[in-house]
Design goal:
Layout lengths: L17 H9 L4 H7 L4 H7 L12 H14 L11 E2 L2 E2 L1 H10 L9 H4 L4 E3 L9 E4 L10 E9 L2 E8 L3 E6 L3 H6 E6 L3
Helix pairs in contact: 4-5
């Protein structure tokens, strides 16, 4: 396997190794799109919790996919909340997840309750960027009613993007009392 070199100052990988060519083929991305996600930045490293953001190997294809899902969700930041909404004029929490995953050729069910039934359950301490985080916000707290997308887990300190009914699409912190109180579970869709 060839180790890709990083251009001084640009942070862009110049050479592609065998696994990166497989990445282009596997995700049907053009080389320019791969380069887009291979920009080396502290922000990207932190967000993905990657040990080495300078190369993409077969073992971290999922991190590349997770980064794309997170970026797709972040395109909606500032969009107002609208129950049942599915556009940038207004969107609800499950539609946000649906669009973030669909944009990256992965299918999700339409509702947060249905989304909570797929994937593998993950402990809070093992949450990774790209995992779905679910909440029970109804009065009886009996069913899943809200979903978000984990963007960061720094030693159990979890942040997530979601469509808040009062603030629209925002990034929140699981440490906030409301989210601590209504937290239900975390599911991993991308292994």
């Amino acid at each position: 396997m060839t180790i890709a070199s990083v251009s001084e100052g640009t942070g862009i990988i110049e050479k592609y190794d065998a696994s990166e060519k497989a990445l282009v083929k596997k995700f049907k991305k053009k080389e320019s799109e791969v380069k887009k996600y291979k920009l080396i930045s502290d922000k990207l490293q932190k967000r993905l919790s990657l040990e080495d953001a300078t190369t993409i190997s077969n073992t971290n294809f999922p991190n590349f996919q997770k980064a794309e899902v997170i970026e797709a969700a972040k395109e909606y930041i500032g969009t107002p909340y609208h129950y049942g909404g599915m556009t940038k004029k207004g969107i609800d929490c499950s539609a946000l997840m649906l669009f973030a995953y669909t944009k990256n050729d992965m299918e999700l069910p339409r509702t947060s309750r249905a989304q909570s039934k797929i994937g593998r359950k993950i402990k809070k301490s093992n949450a990774e960027p790209g995992d779905l985080i679910f909440f029970k916000t109804n009065r009886r707290r009996s069913v899943i009613t809200h979903v978000g997308l984990v963007t960061e887990n720094q030693d159990g300190h979890i942040k997530f993007i979601h469509a808040s009914s009062s603030k629209g699409v925002i990034e929140s912190d699981l440490e906030e009392s409301y989210y601590q109180r209504t937290f239900a579970k975390i599911k991993r869709i991308i292994e």
